[in-house]
Amino acid sequence: QLVAYEVKRMRAEEGNKQKILRHIKELAEKLYKNENPYPAVTMHKVQKPTEGCHLRLHQKPFPRLDEGTVQWIIDQATAKLQTAPPAVKAEKKCMVPSGPPIAAILERNGNALANSARRLEVVRNCISYVFENKMLEAKKLFPAVLRAMKGRAARHCLTQELNLHVQQNRAVLDHQQFDFIIRMMNCCLQ
């Protein structure tokens, strides 16, 4: 939503640090409220019984429960639940537009387009090295791949390449290969 709706606002604020800081604070509050919609509920700790407590002689037998009292308590709780607001907020589903095209975002960075093809090639080579178990070469390219994941085109390239390898039935990985792929996917998702 930020990319889709507020690109013009961010461009207008580029020169004014006060507006940028206020905008960042607003975003931080929105993100915090999104992650923590309800105030923290305090949890009461129940102490564990000591070892051998069940062997003590002074334990009283559990008292008999009165059926009428138990039913009254259940009815009270049911009445409270019916009048209480829902505990979980309803999830609002909405479509977020894709925002401005990649070219509109990259127009400020003229050399970004020239570097884009090289970054995509680095991503493709690294994934090929991982699946071919050439881990030394993959390890050399890995930092560049992680930096490239900041771009939408590189993330798209990663998903296409992984899909290609899965379709070729070459998706059986050892631990190190799996670790590399998962780290790339994690970076992509972040």
Automatic annotation (TrEMBL):
It comes from Tauraco erythrolophus. This is Myotubularin-related protein 5. Residues 99-190 form the SBF1/SBF2 domain. InterPro entries: SBF1/SBF2.
